């Protein structure tokens, strides 16, 4: 029963910054890739940043140069530093992870419940 819990969302003015965290807990053997997704009102969920086990991150074009993904494998935690926030960044942000359970033989996709980021003008 692996669980991902996001934190760090909130209300910020345009140009401000937030740092999101996502911590995985449970009977985890290993975590491969982790990612951040977001879903804005009236829009489909989209990939924001994909972070490999080694910490290399690929970003959506809309956030390149503004967002930075990182992870702490010892803590089973991934972060998303968001700078120069824009109103169009307003969305619910979700954490995703590929998790290998203790004794497992295949990776499972696990999703967090999401954290709301609101960027005001």
What secondary-structure arrangement, pairings included, does this model have?
Blueprint (H helix, E strand, L loop, with lengths): L2 E5 L2 E4 L4 E8 L2 E12 L6 E6 L5 E3 L7 E6 L4 E6 L8 E11 L6 E4 L3 E6 L1
Parallel strand pairs: 2-11
Antiparallel strand pairs: 1-3, 3-8, 4-5, 4-9, 5-6, 7-8, 9-10, 9-11
Describe this structure in words.
The chain is an all-beta fold. It contains no helices and eleven strands. A hairpin with a 6-residue loop joins strand 9 (91-101) and strand 10. It is elongated. The termini are far apart.
Average the pLDDT over all residues and give the rounded result: 95
Report the biggest beta sheet as strand number plus sense, adding barrel if it closes: 7 strands, mixed
Strand content: over 45%
Shape: elongated
Order of helices and strands: EEEEEEEEEEE
* Quaternary organization: single chain
Helix amount, in percent? Answer: under 10%
Number of helices: 0
Poorly predicted ranges (pLDDT <50, ≥5 residues)? none
Structural class: mainly beta
Give the tally of β-strands. 11
List keywords for this structure.
121 residues, mainly beta, seven-stranded mixed sheet, four-stranded antiparallel sheet
């Amino acid at each position: 029963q692996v669980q991902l819990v996001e934190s760090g969302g909130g209300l910020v003015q345009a140009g401000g910054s937030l740092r999101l965290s996502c911590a995985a807990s449970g009977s985890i053997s290993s975590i491969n890739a982790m990612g951040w997704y977001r879903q804005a009102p009236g829009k489909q969920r989209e990939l924001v940043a994909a972070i490999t086990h080694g910490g290399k991150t690929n970003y959506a074009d809309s956030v390149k140069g503004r967002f930075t993904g990182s992870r702490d494998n010892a803590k089973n935690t991934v972060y998303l530093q968001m700078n120069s926030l824009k109103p169009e960044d307003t969305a619910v942000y979700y954490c995703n992870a590929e998790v290998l359970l203790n004794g497992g033989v295949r990776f499972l996709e696990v999703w967090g419940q999401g954290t709301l980021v609101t960027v005001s003008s």
